[in-house]
Structures are given as structure tokens and as C-alpha cells.
Amino acid sequence: MATEKQVRANQQNARKSTGPTSIAGKLKVSGNRITHGILSNKLLLAGETQEDYQALLDDLQQQLRPVGSLELSLVEKIALTLWRQRRLVHAETAAIELVTNPRRIASEVESGMGFSGYCDEKISPEDLQPSDWKQAEQLKWCQAVIAEYHQTDALSLDDWVQKLR
After folding, report:
1. Rounded Cα–Cα distance for residues 165 and 117 (Å)
2. DSSP character for 31?
3. Which of 77, 53, 38 is nearest to 165 (CA)?
4. ∠ Cα 42 48 49 (to 5°)
């Protein structure tokens, strides 16, 4: 636990930190907080390509054959929704993998960081629990998003089209 003096010093130092001021600097740090990207304002995140998104959009346009700007806009919304659902599946898969194989994940992270064999302690389920109320709230939110995904995942593409028309 930090002492009162440390807390005051921390607060004073934080006032001096203004963050990036240039447009390039702000753009660079804008993705720092992204954890799963489900609600991201960015179309493409790390590991995603414009070509993959365009292929999805082209396929939907070919199947649905939108007429006019309204229908085209709806097809684009469908593509974006499906794109985000893919992100959710990846995030869910990673979360399940972390819970079911934490030692293997920790080992891969250690070796990827050049710390192979750095830690011999086993990871316990308690190590994976949220450490503060913000993380607990984030976990609850993620679980709610995953539950919502499972509800919408049962809908076929035709169901989505009917729902949007």
C-alpha cells in the first residue's frame, strides 16, 4: 500500500504528464486501451486486414444485392456487425484458452518475452481473478457481451436481413 507521501507525489507527477500533443502521437496512443475491440471506433485492429473485411463486404453485397444508398448502408452495417462478432469469437476463444490452459499461455508469453524459465510458480485460478473493481466491472461487461453474442449467433444471415428490413 502506498504511503500518503507517495500518493501526493504521484498526484503531482500526474499533473505534469499531459500525454501526446502532436496528431501523430495522439494517433499512436489511441489504440493503447483496446482489449477486445468489440466497441472500437477503428475498423481494423492488429491482425485484421482490409482485404479480409472487403471480401466480407463484397460477399454480402453479392448475396443481398442492395439497391440504393439505404440498402447499401444496411449491408455495410451487417458487415460491420459480423466483423465485430468475429472479434468477439476471437476474444472469447482467448479467454477460454486462458482459463483452461493458463500454464501453457504463461509459458508462451514468457518465452515470447525472452523470459523462458523465468518463473517456476504455477498459475492458480486466483491469479486470473480481477484485482480491483474496475477489472471486475470490465469482466462483467465482457461476460454480458459474450452472452449477447450467443443470443445473436443463433440468427442466420436471412434472419439478420429480415430484422433490418
Report:
1. 57
2. T
3. 77
4. 100
Please state the domain extents for the chain: 46-164
Radius of gyration of the chain (CA): 21
Q: Is 124 left (phi over 0), alpha (psi -120 to 50) or beta?
A: beta
| 71-108 pLDDT tens trace | 999 999 999 889 888 888 888 887 787 777 777 777 77
Calculate the alpha carbon distances from 53 to 46, 84, 94 in Å: 13, 11, 21
Distances (CA, A) of 114 to 27, 98, 101, 109, 120: 29, 20, 20, 9, 15
Tens of pLDDT, residues 57-80: 999 999 999 999 999 999 999 998
> Among residues 130, 128, 138, which one has the least CA distance to residue 103?
128
With contact defined as beta carbons under 8 Å apart, do 45 and 31 qualify?
A: yes
> Residue 127's CB: how many other CB atoms inside 10 A?
11
